[in-house]
Amino acid sequence: MNAFRYDGSTEGMFSAIDHILRNEFDPAAVSLARQGLSLFDEGVFLPTDTARASTLLRRFSAAFPENAREVMYCVFSEKEGLETALLHYMHMVSLHGSGIGAYLTHPVVHDVHVLARKVAREAHRLKGLLRFSMLADGSYLARMEPDFNIIQPLSSFFTRRLRTQDWFICDVRRGLVSRWDGKRLEYGTLESFRTPELAEEERDVRRCWKTFFDTIAIPERKNDRLQKSFMPMKYWKYLVEKE
Amino acid sequence: MDTLEKLRILSGSARYDASCSSSGSSRNGGEGTLGNACSGGICHSWSDDGRCISLLKVLFSNDCRYDCAYCVNRSSNPVPRASFDVDELVGLVVKFYRRNYIEGLFLSSAVMKSPDDTMERMVNVVRKLRRDERFFGYVHLKVIPGCSPHLLRQAGLFADRLSVNIELPSEASLNILAPQKKREAILEPMAFLGSAIGESRRERRRDRRAERFSPAGQSTQMIIGASPESDYQILSLSQGLYRKMNLKRVYYSAYVPVNEDNRLPVLATPPLLREHRLYQADWLLRNYGFSADEILSEEHPQLDEKLDPKAAWALRHPEFFPVDVNCADYAMLLRIPGLGVTSARRIVSARRFAPVTPEGLKKIGVVMKRARYFITCSGKPVERLFDRPAMIRDRLLLAENLPSATPLKQRQLNLF
Ligand code: SF4
């Protein structure tokens, strides 16, 4: 099996995939991994070419939007060692068309699908569980610590939903921030985080929400287990109602 | 009284309403509008009883003129009373929505001065949300039985979903437990909505810009266990509602005793397992092509509490099994226990590439611990027990790991 290496960045991975899809006789027999720290890494190193990577992504998304979505969700998973699976998946799709995505009993299709679903599930969950707080200057801030790197799909969701307010979404552990000012969405990194001043109405609104949350449950039907299975405790840290 | 106190009273008395879903409607505002509605629905939290919270579920008022036996808010109960102001409630919805606490509003109400007077205030809330706040989130309005058609018409133009609660599965029970509510006051609005919804759908097929009337359809709720109707009667009623009234969903709400009243049964705990089985059976009606007569009959009027209704049906009908997953049609796949709509669709797609094996079925997401007794893969059985339904039943019961099933079952035995 031919082995290739890349620098570990997302652009690096897609430029390597592009190179392999174009030049290798049988991409299905090729493996791809990030370059390790060892000097004795096996495989040919493929340099990162940002333009090449974005052309591949643009073409692939235009031709196979559903499959491209799965590929991107896999990338958001930040899971180690899935490059080869993504390479083989994109190869299969470009060879047989988007319909191959339904071949769920095939190991490559299955793995990509399962991982993408896991990430999509967390993104969907946070669409509901993300909590915005109003800051003193009238903008809103939401903090989160998701398992996967899903700030991108979440931010584009909220640009549609909360388009008339200024907001920030902050992935606390990864130090990533997105910002919407009513017109544009920007991404950046966060060097340090000062807890900002909250707006005056914020405390009252939170108390109202907590009151609602506490009174809406029927005491005779209390069921912690069920609650936790839908709303795992790892998300409670930023939930107003679970403060 | 401040908003917080009103919220406590008016959400506390709305909690017995079962429906909460926000699905079935998509709305996208343009420039300058607040929010959208997603057709799949989004849950924002889960309450301590494990039910999903997607909407701000409140009553507009709990100050009721009527005296329904099963209701906390009946006029003869000495409970604190409150009513929102229209602006107050609108403000609350917007504040919650901007913080992403909710998908929208679920608004119901006790009957204040008259059905029309109450309904009018509720319609004002939605009108204000849509017109002044340019709010595009989800709104579910409960119809006050007996209100006039012109209010229904307005409600339908502003809300995503409307519902009229049936509350009790028969007219006789209604007369005993909710004597001020008349059957016609429930069925007439329901029929009105059914035809208005159908009409607006047809209109919109011809012209995309035609007005939408209650785009997420109408639903209803029934209280389970406050009156003596059997599961068979309940499911037959639901089936009728789906077919004749064009209903989207029927919600079942296990009766929670809140009043002492000798017209009501004495229950130690709400019949939650029965509610769960009814939801499963209802699912079979709506999504799996079953009819009420296949699931139950006059001779067997109650659902089996231990077994999910599809498995129970399969055990009664060994003549349909085993089903070969590589050649059965979609409708038949749907009837295999352990297979859902998604896995049935996936099987149909996957077998175009290669025959599906037991391994593959697992990958597709089939619940093999249930399906294994009912299928073959290209002629090869997974389990050779087809001719021994009693044994399959035992194994299924063993495999069924409903965590709370045992204590509930025991508690339920002394209820009926
Ligand atoms: S009409 Fe009946 S069910 Fe509705 S709030 Fe009044 S007493 Fe309760």
Distance between the termini of chain B: 43 Å
Which ligands does the model contain, each kind named once?
iron/sulfur cluster
Spans where pLDDT lies below 50 across 5 or more residues of chain A: none
Largest sheet of chain B: 6 strands, parallel
Question: Structural class, judged by helices and strands of chain A?
Answer: alpha/beta
Number of DSSP-assigned strands of chain B: 13
Label the overall shape of chain B: globular
**What is the number of domains of chain A?**
2
Structure summary, number of beta strands of chain A:
8
Strand arrangement in the largest pleated sheet of chain A: 4-5-6-7-8
The H-and-E topology of chain A, N to C, reads as EHEEHHHHEEHEEEHH
Structural class of the secondary elements of chain B?
alpha/beta
How many angstroms separate the termini of chain A?
Answer: 54 Å
The spatial strand order of the largest sheet of chain B comes to: 5-6-7-8-9-10
Summarize the structure in words.
- The complex is a heterodimer of chains A (about 240) and B (about 425).
- Chain A has about 240 residues and is an alpha/beta fold.
- Chain A contains eight helices and eight strands.
- In chain A, about 45% of the residues lie in helices and about 15% in strands.
- Chain A has a five-stranded mixed β-sheet, with helices on one face. In chain A, strands 2-1-3 form a three-stranded parallel β-sheet.
- In chain A, β1, α1 and β2 form a beta-alpha-beta unit.
- The model of chain A has no long low-confidence stretch (mean pLDDT about 90).
- Chain B is of the alpha/beta class and about 425 residues long.
- Chain B has a six-stranded parallel β-sheet with strand order 5-6-7-8-9-10. A three-stranded mixed β-sheet of chain B has the order 11-12-13, with no helix packed on it.
- Chain B is globular, with a radius of gyration of 23 Å.
- Chain B starts with a helix and ends with a helix.
- The model of chain B is unreliable at about 400-415 (pLDDT under 50).
- The complex binds iron/sulfur cluster (SF4).
- Iron/sulfur cluster (SF4) binds next to loops of chain B.
